[in-house]
Design goal:
By secondary structure, this protein is an alpha+beta fold. It contains nine helices and twelve strands.
């Protein structure tokens, strides 16, 4: 007898939207999105940067569903942290300057052989799927997102890390002419983030190239970013140009800027407040709701074991 255990983020089957209804909804949304492209997706700039649109929408992986409604795109697409283009949430107009094609990803460090690969070539090599994930910002707001991409473990396998590699360091683009926020001398540009190889190998760690059934718009971190749903959003580096495998723990952007507030691990924990505000609840984007924050953002069953033996570390902020 096969016993299926529900994962922590899964909804009861009777509450799930049927596949036929979901696909019909996508057709309707797709038509409406074409009319709204000038606002939500950055107009012509976003369409020019979209890459191979024939790969979207990708098939949804039914193992990754949610207990809450997907955040409507009109809210999430116009509420973004992307400090390269400014410190406000409405970075969409400035992010139109981001030139995302062609875009090359460099793989280096402790790997069998360093290499570079175009993002479109990478996508064709590893394939795409859609997953529904929670996203929790350290600023205490949240959203539910239909990301398109592939497991980070596939990129790790492609890189063939050496036995001494323990961490992955992600680095975003650096172009002060294109990104006015990078002219701010007090930030430690370029943006860097990191994970352990064990974290990167977890099934939930995801490389994102699309959202809402379309290629990733600029303000979301086009053309390639990371989604680590059990951590605060700043751990999910955007517009990545380099992935390095290292023996030493990388110093990350926010850790370098304000280590007293932002550590390396940054796992979600409602019981550990940010030094300047509570993490006990979160505002659900696009609603007037505040809901209790869940440990590891609701993914504890899948990831808590990654941190056994690390109780002496500051795992949560």
């Amino acid at each position: 007898m096969v016993i299926k255990r529900k994962r922590g983020w899964e909804m009861p089957e009777h509450l799930a939207t049927s596949e036929a209804l979901f696909l019909n909804r996508r057709v309707l949304i797709g038509g409406a999105a074409g009319l709204a492209a000038g606002s939500l997706l950055g107009g012509r700039a976003a369409l020019a940067a979209a890459g191979d649109q024939t790969l979207y929408p990708a098939a949804q992986n039914p193992a990754y569903t949610l207990d809450r409604a997907i955040t409507p795109e009109r809210f999430s697409a116009d509420y973004n942290n992307f400090y390269e283009f400014g410190t406000s949430k409405t970075v969409l107009p400035a992010a139109n300057a981001l030139k995302t094609h062609p875009w090359t990803l460099k793989i280096d460090g402790l790997v069998e052989k360093p290499f570079e690969i175009g993002v479109d070539d990478l996508i064709r090599k590893v394939g795409l799927e859609e997953r529904l994930y929670r996203h929790r910002c350290v600023e205490a707001w949240s959203m539910a997102v239909p990301w398109t991409g592939f497991p980070l473990s596939k990129l790790v396998a492609l890189a063939k890390p050496a036995s001494g590699a323990k961490y992955i360091r992600f680095e975003t683009f650096m172009d002060k002419a294109m990104a006015p926020g990078q002219r701010a001398f007090f930030y430690p540009w370029p943006y860097t983030e990191g994970l352990t190889l064990a974290e990167a190998g977890n099934d939930l760690a995801f490389v994102v190239t699309g959202v809402y059934g379309k290629p990733l718009p600029n303000q979301f971190g086009a053309p390639i970013r990371i989604a680590v749903p059990w951590k605060y959003g700043f751990k999910s580096a955007k517009s990545i140009v380099k992935v390095s495998f290292t023996a030493d723990r990388p110093k990350t952007f926010w850790e370098g800027l304000q280590a007293s507030e932002y550590g390396f691990w940054a796992n979600v924990n409602p019981a550990v407040p940010h030094p300047r505000w509570s993490q006990a609840t979160e505002r659900v984007l696009g609603t007037d709701q505040r809901v209790p924050t869940l440990i590891y953002n609701g993914y504890g069953e899948q990831v808590a074991g990654l941190y056994k033996g690390l109780e002496g570390e500051r795992l949560f902020l």
